[in-house]
From TrEMBL:
Domain Fatty acid hydroxylase: 122-256
Name of the protein described by the UniProt record: Cholesterol 25-hydroxylase like 1, tandem duplicate 1
GO cellular component: membrane
Organism from which the protein derives: Sphaeramia orbicularis (orbiculate cardinalfish)
TM region(s), chain numbering: 30-54, 75-102, 114-135
Top-level taxon in the UniProt lineage: Eukaryota
GO molecular function ontology, one term from the record: iron ion binding
Keywords tagged on the record: Membrane, Transmembrane, Transmembrane helix
Cell compartments where the protein resides: Membrane
One Gene Ontology term from the biological process aspect of the record: lipid biosynthetic process
Cited InterPro entries: Fatty_acid_hydroxylase, Sterol_Desaturase_Related
Length: 268
């Protein structure tokens, strides 16, 4: 490789390091699940601490979207244990079955370029956003599908970080299937896929934190392209609105976008 070519692959040292020192881990079929679940844990914990502290930290509590609805420790434990149970008893066995029937993925020598990470990552997010929008719309319109598959996610009108993965087994498996198949369909580099996994987990948790933080993605990205916590919090208050998980375009196009009406705390 010439030097000029190398400069376009800024991630090559990272990728070389991973291949050299962590090949058994990153080539394991369990790695994507481990990455996704630990991202859910890692991103949820700080907001769980905030939820426990509540109005004792007014600096953050001023941004709480539904200040009159606080999650209890019991609600937090139920959400987290549901996610843990589903991963241990359904996701892991599915991965083990996959080991026997799916071909072993091979890791390329070249790292992706930053351009590839951005474009392929964006393509994955847009595809997933579209798939989930359609799935989500159908599961709110069909009463039996709603009752048996999606209702468990709507147990709480005010979401909190752990409730991100309070999902039924069919919903978790559907989302997991797309997360696995979309990078194959779009021919994404594994590193791009893993960055996107972590980023999409961040966006999913941010959807559910219950705080409209001024530095959240939906405020940083212009034109309201990202729905974020205000849009998804509204979905939990008014379930016939804001079906898209990440972006706002499908809800705008199909007229299901509803802006958040923020309740103000009387005390402040
Ligand atoms: Zn939700
Ligand atoms: Zn819903």
């Amino acid at each position: 490789l010439s030097l000029s070519h190398e400069t376009y692959r800024l991630l090559q040292p990272l990728w070389d390091y991973m291949l050299l020192h962590h090949r058994p881990l990153i080539s394991s079929p369990f790695f994507p699940v481990l990455l996704a679940f630990s991202s859910y844990l890692f991103f949820s914990i700080p907001f769980a601490v905030l939820d426990i502290l509540g109005d004792r930290v007014p600096f953050f509590y001023q941004y709480k979207i539904q200040p009159d609805r606080k999650p209890t420790l019991g609600m937090m434990a139920k959400s987290f244990l549901t996610a843990l149970y589903n991963h241990i008893f359904f996701v892991l066995p599915t991965v083990i079955i996959g080991v026997f029937i799916l071909p072993l993925p091979t890791l390329p020598q070249d790292a992706p370029t930053l351009y590839e990470v951005f474009v392929d990552g964006l393509a994955m997010l847009l595809l997933f956003d579209t798939q989930y929008y359609i799935w989500h719309f159908i599961h709110h319109k069909h009463s039996q599908l709603y009752r048996w598959i999606h209702a468990i996610h709507h147990e709480y009108m005010a979401p909190f970080s752990w409730s991100t993965e309070q999902l039924s087994i069919p919903e978790l498996m559907t989302v997991g299937l797309w997360s696995n198949q979309d990078p194959i369909i779009l021919k994404c580099h594994p590193l791009t896929t893993w960055f996107t996994t972590v980023f999409s987990l961040w966006m999913s948790v941010e959807d559910h934190i219950g705080y409209d933080l001024p530095w959240a993605l939906n405020h940083l990205v212009p034109f309201g392209l990202f729905g974020g916590a205000p849009a998804h919090d509204m979905h939990h208050q008014k379930p016939s609105s804001n079906y898209a998980p990440f972006f706002s375009h499908w809800d705008r196009i199909f007229g299901t976008a509803v802006p958040l009406k923020k309740k103000t705390l009387k005390k402040f």
